[in-house]
Structure formats: C-alpha cells, structure tokens
Amino acid sequence: MNIPNNYLPVMPYLVLDKAYEFMEFCKYVFGATEQMIVPGQDTRAIMHGELKIHDAIIMFANSNENWKQKTSGTFIFVTNVDDVYKKAMESKSISLQQPVKQDYGYSAGFEDPFGNHWWITQGE
C-alpha cells in the first residue's frame, strides 16, 4: 500500500454545517494547522479541508443538500489537558467530563459547538 507522506491509513472525515467555524475552533483549541483548504462557492464554505493536529489529519467539508452534517467522537492525546479543556469551554463547548486523573491518564471530555465529542488525555 502506498500512502502519501502527509496522510495516515485512517483519517476521520467530518461533514459540518459550519466547516469554517470548525476549522477556527480546532486552530484555537488544539493548535491545528491547515494542510489543505479548498474553498466552496460561499466565502465561508469549505468544499474540502484538511487540518493537522500533531501527526494526525482530520478531513472535513461543509454540509449541503446531498451530504448532511454527521457528528463524531474522537480520542486525542494532548500536551496539556487543562489548557485544551479551558480553551474548549471558552469556545462554547459543553463539558462531558471535567479534567480528572483516570487509570489510563489525566483526561477530560467535551462536546464542541458542532456536536462532536472529544475525549482528551494528556500524553506522558
């Protein structure tokens, strides 16, 4: 199997009503960077987007008449759970689990303003 260097074998693909706002949310909360943004017809529409968080890629696009919004759940290792959780709460996310020490690490969870669930754990 020949996978291009800037991709992984499995990557989420989200279809969102507010793709541009999702992109800005990920940049602020996770420090995501744009790998590729293909604009749609509207100035805030994204026909295809790719965000990079550490080595991971999240692909996303605006919903339309044929492709309705689909939410997801994602687990992600982060450098600082408290910082990411705080930024998510500042960005109108809903807490699913406040930061707490678990058997598997320091973790938290939240639902972003777009309906996606994020489970974050601090990498050692």
TrEMBL record:
InterPro entries for this protein: Glyas_Bleomycin-R_OHBP_Dase
Domain of life: Bacteria
Gene3D superfamilies hit by this protein: 3.30.720.110, 3.30.720.120
UniProt xrefs under PANTHER family: BNAUNNG04460D PROTEIN-RELATED, VOC DOMAIN-CONTAINING PROTEIN
Protein's UniProt name: Putative transposase
